[in-house]
Design goal:
Length: 331
């Protein structure tokens, strides 16, 4: 029999009202966790608020899950969500968000490069400026330039241009959210990095805070240049979902009209070459008639896809009872 896939949650007794939840995805970070957890506990205690930390074991195979389970037994503030295999950082963060109880939710990497001591200043800035999200900006960043910092700089500029929200460091995991802006959010692929842009697109207020960054002292980095291409594809998905999820006919319809335009122009030019040019050109000596027919057929398919997408969107909203608008909190 295959292994049954499920999410296992280790909870502690004595539930209390939580002010701040810290979500930390963990994948093969056994060497970093013993140093990270005491630092996190010390930083959160200085805030003087009720807090919890949710470690999401994303299918680790180096003993991280066992260490977390033992830690949870001795600390009631520790909750562990164990995934049955490695689903990736986005899925791990979503699991943490689903189990978070705090009004504020902070996210942090488990490798120790982000400093948990920076969480209090994120909380202070969020409350002082009335923000919905505070995104960390690693400065200076302690990573190799060619393989990490340069691709990150290019990705940040591209994401800023595409989304309209200019942040210096979309890839920094250290962020703080109000829990309400995460309700109803569903992320796929590598789209966790677009969460601030998603909140901004829904009318939320997003700020940025400079945070410290340290070199990795244990374990191995899970990031590489291959993630750059995934970011590009996820950016296209994000752009479509935020701008055209309620009116997909605008995308497919415009593409269809463009194809019809190509079909019309190529057809007219073929007729001109046949009857108006000196000397005339036979249809079988030019690819224009074939282009005219092909572009016309593709245009019809785009229009039909747009209509089908419209039907799916309306069925989704009506069956789920989801409005196509959102109300602003407060006056």
């Amino acid at each position: 029999m295959g292994r049954r896939c499920a999410v296992r949650t280790l909870l502690t007794d004595g539930e209390e009202t939580i002010d701040i939840s810290v979500v930390i995805p963990v994948y093969n970070e056994r060497a970093s966790l013993p140093a990270l957890h005491p630092r996190l506990a010390s930083a959160m205690e200085k805030l003087g608020r009720a807090w919890e930390v949710i470690y999401v074991d994303d299918g680790s195979g180096d003993g991280s899950g066992e260490w977390l389970a033992e830690t949870a037994k001795g600390d009631r503030r520790v909750r562990v969500v164990s995934l049955c295999r490695n689903f990736g950082q986005t899925a791990a963060l979503m699991a943490g968000f689903d189990h978070a109880q705090g009004e504020l939710v902070a996210t942090l990497d488990a490798d120790g490069q982000n400093a948990p001591e920076d969480i209090p200043q994120l909380v202070e800035q969020l409350e002082r400026e009335g923000l919905d999200v505070v995104s960390g900006w690693r400065r200076p960043r302690a990573d190799p330039f060619l393989t990490r910092r340069l691709p990150s700089m290019l990705a940040n500029r591209l994401i800023g241009l595409a989304t309209g929200l200019r942040l210096h460091d979309y890839g920094c995991t250290l962020k703080l959210y109000k829990k309400r802006v995460l309700s109803g959010v569903r992320l796929y692929g590598e789209m966790h990095r677009f969460l601030p842009a998603y909140v901004a697109a829904q009318g939320g207020c997003v700020g940025e805070c400079v945070v410290s960054h340290a070199p990795r002292r244990a374990g191995r980095s899970k990031y590489g240049l291959g993630r750059t291409f995934k970011v590009l594809l996820d950016l296209l998905t994000f752009k479509f979902l935020t701008l055209y999820s309620n009116k997909p006919i605008y995308v497919f319809g415009l593409a269809g009209l463009a194809c019809f335009g190509v079909s019309l122009l190529s057809g007219l030019y073929a007729v001109y070459l046949k009857y108006g040019a000196e000397p005339s050109t036979n249809f079988n000596r030019t690819p224009l008639p074939l282009l005219c027919v092909a572009a016309g057929m593709i245009g019809v398919q785009f229009i039909l896809l747009g209509l089908l997408a419209e039907m799916l969107v309306r069925t989704y909203h009506e069956s789920q009872g989801r409005p196509i608008y959102q109300l602003r909190d407060g006056p």
